[in-house]
Design goal:
The protein is an alpha+beta fold. It contains 4 helices and 19 strands. Strand 2, helix 1 and strand 3 form a beta-alpha-beta unit. The longest helix has 13 residues. It is globular and about 50 Å long. The model has no long low-confidence stretch (mean pLDDT 97).
Length: 262
């Protein structure tokens, strides 16, 4: 099987053009292992679609299927354009959370960055969670997948590797949840660290950045219609939240290497 490793701000996946095999859960677990496999946050399959230009399916490092991946979908745009599957610079990609619109920024015949219309972020009133006997407040947000956004004073002091799995598997989230810890640095700057459902700590999360920006706007830390810089461990994304809740995400996508496995 041929695969292409790609990354968006360090959020890395193994990309395959073709139909999803029956053993995908075990395959994603095996190949995603960073010591005994190729090493990735999961696998993404790309195939033709009857309702869009292409279809993407996302499988986490633990074998579970994800509904959406913001960094992953940008890499899908670069993959299909740079590899010659399309010459369009405006694409529709079918995902489990609906059809997403991509705008490719091309230079020298290669995609340099991708803007994604992520649809509307659904923000909800703050809720309280009890962790280790302490009550903490978070903002629930859906961006096609569930997020719990926690605003903190110093994000570098928060250990996502220990708090993340506790929150993801908390009884309040029977289906699990993506967890974001966010520090507001200014009206246009956020710093975020993430624990992704099914993958753990990752260097970047596109949907998490959108959820964090939407929550910051809801709490009036930031403003509608103004580009926000969301700094992640792997780099920075630009997020814009409109007054109707629609979110646009812009960021890079890069090839890492091509590989084959038996």
């Amino acid at each position: 099987m041929h695969f292409t490793k790609m990354q968006g701000l360090g959020n890395d996946y193994l990309y395959v053009y073709g139909e999803v095999p029956e053993n995908i859960a075990a395959l994603s677990q095996k190949l995603s292992d960073r010591h005994f496999g190729a090493g990735a946050d999961g696998m993404i399959y790309i195939s033709p679609s009857g309702i869009a230009d292409f279809k993407m399916r996302i499988f986490n490092a633990d074998g579970s299927e994800a509904m959406m991946c913001g960094n992953g979908i940008r890499c899908v745009g670069k993959y299909v354009y740079d590899k010659g599957y399309t010459d369009k610079t405006n694409l529709k990609i079918d995902t489990l959370s609906g059809v997403k619109l991509l705008r490719l920024q091309v230079s020298g015949g290669k995609v340099k960055s991708v803007s994604v219309s992520m649809g509307k972020a659904e923000t909800h009133p703050e809720q309280t969670l009890t962790i280790n006997g302490k009550s903490i407040t978070y903002t629930p947000v859906s961006v096609g997948n569930p997020h719990a956004v926690f605003f903190v004073e110093n994000v570098e002091a928060v250990p996502p590797e220990s708090l993340g799995p506790i929150i993801e598997h908390h009884p309040d989230f029977p289906g699990g949840v993506n967890v974001e810890f966010v520090e507001v640095r200014s009206e246009t700057e956020l710093r975020m660290r993430v624990w992704e459902r099914g993958s753990g700590v990752t260097m970047a999360c596109g949907t998490g950045s959108c959820a964090s920006a939407a929550a910051a706007v809801q709490k009036k830390y930031c403003r509608h219609g103004k580009p926000l810089s969301v700094e992640l461990d792997g780099g920075t994304l630009e997020i814009k939240v409109e007054s109707d809740g629609s979110v646009t995400m812009t960021g890079p996508a890069e090839f890492v290497y091509e590989g084959e496995t038996i």
